[in-house]
Amino acid sequence: MPELPEVETVVRGLRNSIINQTIEAVDISDKQLRLPYHLEMVPILRGKKITDITRYAKYIIIHTNSIYKLVMHLGMSGRLTISGLANKEKHDHVVFKLSNTQLIFNDARRFGLVALVENLDNSKLFSHLGIDPFASEFTWECLYNLTKRSKSLIKSLLMNAKCIVGIGNIYATESLFSAKILPNRVASSLSEVEVVLLYQSIIEVLSKAIDSGGSTLKDYVHADGNIGQFQNSFRAYGRINKLCYECNHIIQRIQIAGRSSFYCANCQK
DNA sequence: CTGAGATCCTGTCTGC
DNA sequence: TGCAGACAGGATCTCA
User: Fold this and answer.
1) Contact A173/A236 with Cβ under 8 angstroms?
2) Residue A3 annotated to the active site
3) Given A6, A8, A58, A133, the catalytic residue
4) N or C end: fewer C-beta atoms under 10 angstroms in chain A?
């Protein structure tokens, strides 16, 4: 679910509310997430102070005054929220009791993960990941190099975390619409001009989505429980059979790599 | 090696 | 109203 803008929004929300708080207890449910829990996190984190919260790809990293970092991924339906209420909700899998509130990891579909990591650089979770769109090394030339040597479809490439991290189905769809490039084009067929347009579209779409607090389709909420607003700015995603805002042709849907892709056959070439 | 498809899991919505 | 089937922000494994 949450793509880069949603994760970034959650991280910013947490940064504003739980830095300097102490983890007093960790309560782990019996339902497994994507990977087995590191149960040793319960004693290790007890009494530790939260010093910073950062994002690495779609992972949320909670730094403490111990050598370990708490790493979380929201999968498709994960929520990471702050709540003063003690009552447990369905699908609350890990609850961190803090000085004067609770940090709650809730995930209906359990595709997410909560892990303890000592060294981020050595972690298997991150070793294969591609470039972050907001890293200074991510330039249009960098994107061009990726497309040139790829035989996959451009939308698959954008969503492939081994190439670029953080872009999922929504933002791949919106970026391609904005750049007027069909999602089922072979990546290596894109011209330099098209790649420049696509690069600019990715940065613009992601930036606007972050400014809007991300997109809420169903499960995603901010750390404070509020929903995102970027879903109101979608120009292609989910707009099947509706009129294209640019040219009034019908928005169509195709499946690419098993995911719905929405596009305007008139605008996108 | 690469890329497409299936898979993990639960909830919600649509159509019969 | 009930039930089957499709579909949903991701990542990873398997197979061709």
Assistant:
1) yes
2) yes
3) A58
4) C
